[in-house]
Task: structure prediction
Amino acid sequence: MLMLIDFLPILLFLAVILLIGGWLLGWRVTYDVLTLDTSPYDQDVANRGAGWLLFLTGWLAVPSIIGALAGEAVGHAMERRTTGGTLKKAAEKLRAELGVTQQPPQQPPTQTPQHPAGPGSTPEAGP
Result:
């Protein structure tokens, strides 16, 4: 969630660039230039300035955003791995959030160990 808040200005900037490109060049040409399928010098690109803005955005901003999202995902996975986030801890956290109390497991009653009678354990009738 924090990453989305940090990326809001960048996403707003991208949205403005896409709207400008769609308005000046058309949506199909904007997509083609942004994905680097079409050169900003192509005959379909009516406005060279908007074409270059889209071309540079597609070349610099889009891969950096994808890389940042992938890095964030890997970072969260590594953090869970290093802090020992196990399934048991996740289940305990979920129970705590839901307010479900877990009863301790029932222990079997303790029994005293039974030893077999040995040669000196019982008195024998002697002579």
Summary: The two ends are 91 Å apart (CA to CA). The chain has a mean pLDDT of 79.
